[in-house]
Amino acid sequence: MEIPRTNLTLSFLFLCLFLVSAFSFSSFSPTDNHLINCGSSVDAAVYSRRFVSDDDYSNPNSPLLSATRTIPLANQNPSPNSPQIYNTARVFKKPSKYVFEIKDPGTHMVRLHFHPFISANLDLNYAKFHVLVNGYVVLSNFTVANVASPLIKEYFIWFESNKVVITFMPTRRDEFGFVNAIEVMSAPKDLISDTAILLKGNNTEKFDGLTKQALETMYRVNVGGPKVTPFNDTVWRTWIPDDGFFESSELSSRIYFSGRIKYQNGGASREVGPDFVYNTARVISSTNASIPEANMTWEFPVMEGYHYLVRLHFCDIASMSLGLLYFNVYINGHLAYENLDISSITYMLAAPFYADFVVDSDSHGVLRVSVGPSNMSMAHTVDGILNGVEILKMNNSVGSLDGKMCAGMVLRSWPRGSFGTLFPLVAVVCLLLSISVLMHKRTVGKGDFVVWSKLPTDVPDDNAKHSNEQLPGKVYVSSRSTDL
Ligand SMILES: *[C@@H]1O[C@H](CO)[C@@H](O)[C@H](O)[C@H]1NC(C)=O
Ligand SMILES: *[C@@H]1O[C@H](CO)[C@@H](O)[C@H](O)[C@H]1NC(C)=O
Ligand SMILES: *[C@@H]1O[C@H](CO)[C@@H](O)[C@H](O)[C@H]1NC(C)=O
Ligand SMILES: *[C@@H]1O[C@H](CO)[C@@H](O)[C@H](O)[C@H]1NC(C)=O
Ligand SMILES: *[C@@H]1O[C@H](CO)[C@@H](O)[C@H](O)[C@H]1NC(C)=O
Ligand SMILES: *[C@@H]1O[C@H](CO)[C@@H](O)[C@H](O)[C@H]1NC(C)=O
Ligand SMILES: *[C@@H]1O[C@H](CO)[C@@H](O)[C@H](O)[C@H]1NC(C)=O
């Protein structure tokens, strides 16, 4: 049991050390960068990123929206502090899709922004819908009601093809879906590596093919530190404080480091975790001759029936010198890392490093991460540290992140049958009616010029244009000045 663990650990470290992180010291600018302000006729800026209108006829950057019966909706009473993208939404009464052109195959970040509001004739708190991204079900029977702040769903998905199709589908004909804003952008190349450590009980194995899983961000936590907003993150993520997850322990303390975080090639890059994450941590330390007999533990509620990617961020900002910090890492009570010595990996202090583990939840739907002294820990030193935790859900065997139905089944659940047989009849009746109206007008001879080129539908006119397929022609590359 010991030998595989050691081998795996070593090969993993080897991998980490030699992964090229060419982006370490430059600010990240994604090749594909589609930011969409849904249901709005004007663009919006959020943290100096431009979200383009999906409803501007003259704008070649609008993504295709191959849908009838979508409704652009504006909040009549927007909250003054709310970013502009949340003041509008596009409502879907039938399955509808956005199609984005992809120039850079590989892992992409997809973010869906939801902040329901009540407009004159529709309350978005009552929406109920499914969302598919290419072949993956990312949300099913999804509702978002009465949330105080916007809900942002974030996914990491590998796109091979040159198109990303995001489908919104009401759960039933009398339901509807909505979205306020969409982001589809290239992820930094070193953000998701293909290999992780698979924890199976007390055993570890190598997990390959991580990049080909669809991942959903469940938790992204800045241990011991403040919230980090998209403005202060290298790839516009949000990191929340760990207080809600940490089981308080009087033997642990928070620390803050004001020096420079030493990003190096082979370690975690600034895109993997910004300075704000690595310059704070929680530690267990022994102040006298005895090593504390305690762990620091974080608990994260998760849904059973999925694998999770647990990414732990470490940066020794606490030790006085190299080689003094040894500790154990446990996930769900199983040893994930024994006698971890960060300095043997980074060869310097304040240099960040991360480790990826693939695990299941325990039987209570909880993921427990613990860090504590190992039997190589020393007195009068730091005996455990953690700077950040990310927990991402992996798609299940049917390619879903939310439920047991595959994308094909979800699509087929739309009552096409009744619609299909009804539609020709309705169309014929409409056609006959409109012809008779036309004939009547002509015979009455009022001289009115009646434009009657298509069947009447309840599509607002400005959406009809979306039925001609058009792809976004241009990509906005947001080059933001980094103040880090
Ligand atoms: C949505 O919920 C209904 C009722 O609970 C269920 O029958 C259906 O399978 C769910 N749909 C998906 C896509 O999970
Ligand atoms: C795993 O290790 C723990 C002690 O660390 C032990 O109690 C447990 O029985 C082991 N489980 C298996 C499946 O070997
Ligand atoms: C970014 O970080 C700085 C320094 O901690 C902080 O003062 C500022 O409020 C942050 N900005 C945002 C938008 O979070
Ligand atoms: C060391 O300090 C801890 C508290 O920090 C205390 O509980 C323990 O008794 C001390 N041990 C010795 C040997 O002084
Ligand atoms: C730390 O946690 C692990 C896993 O839950 C457990 O085996 C170990 O006994 C704990 N150590 C202490 C000192 O509580
Ligand atoms: C450290 O602990 C492991 C089990 O966790 C044990 O096999 C090993 O003998 C211990 N090493 C020392 C030096 O006590
Ligand atoms: C996730 O979906 C892919 C297919 O897109 C599949 O190969 C993979 O096995 C799925 N992951 C899991 C953990 O079942």
UniProtKB/TrEMBL annotation:
- Cell compartment(s), UniProt: Membrane
Q: Which residues form the Malectin-like domain?
A: 36-393
Which keywords has UniProt assigned to this entry?
Answer: ATP-binding, Glycoprotein, Kinase, Membrane, Nucleotide-binding, Serine/threonine-protein kinase, Signal, Transferase, Transmembrane, Transmembrane helix
> Which domain of life does the UniProt lineage start with?
Eukaryota
Q: How does it sit in the membrane?
A: Single-pass type I membrane protein
Transmembrane feature ranges: 419-439
Assign the protein's first listed, main location to one coarse class.
membrane
An example molecular function term from Gene Ontology annotations: ATP binding
Show the GO cellular component annotation of the record: membrane
Question: What InterPro entries does this protein map onto?
Answer: ANXUR1/2-like, Malectin-like_Carb-bd_dom
The UniProt record lists the keyword Nucleotide-binding: yes
Q: Where is the signal peptide?
A: 1-22
User: What is the protein name stated in its UniProt record?
Assistant: Malectin-like domain-containing protein
Q: Which organism is it from?
A: Manihot esculenta
